[in-house]
Predict the structure.
Amino acid sequence: MSTITTYTRKHFDPVHPDPGLLCVEDFAHALPMICRGNGHVTTFWSVGEHCICCAKEAAARGYSRRLVLACLLHDASECYMSDVPRPLKQEMPRYREIEDHLLSVIYEKYLGSDLTAEEQRMMKQIDNDLLWYDLTNLLEEPQAGDAPKLHITLDYAVRPFDAVEKEYLELFEQYQYRETGDERR
């Protein structure tokens, strides 16, 4: 079988994604249950929490609604493909190719188009800034250089899965793409 059964009981093929089967409820439910760092952290911290923090940081930096939503969705592929640690993922070109394609399909469905190179750069900066804090706080591993400036306050308290799921859906609803001509609506 080349599909997985999702939380919403869809049969989804991550290698050949059908945009009609993508479902934000699946992202919002699965990502809070996936631990960052493949579980190698001092306390549970979910991919869902990470995505929420990325979106909130983008909003706090005054970025467009589109970029805030992109930050919320930037790890949505992991609800179908899991969270592979960066050092391993760098050695898996086919995996990255599949993941990049899946993310493009997700962005096209929920943002109207794939990310531009500049949007990709801005989102990656937020992702890397938060990773600095994750490694410092979740592994108690001092990081090189000065702490990146964040516009939000990080709280690594573990929350119930359903609370993270609910907040993810609320942020999605708040920032979802609507054809209005004004992306900052």
Remarks:
- The mean pLDDT is 93.
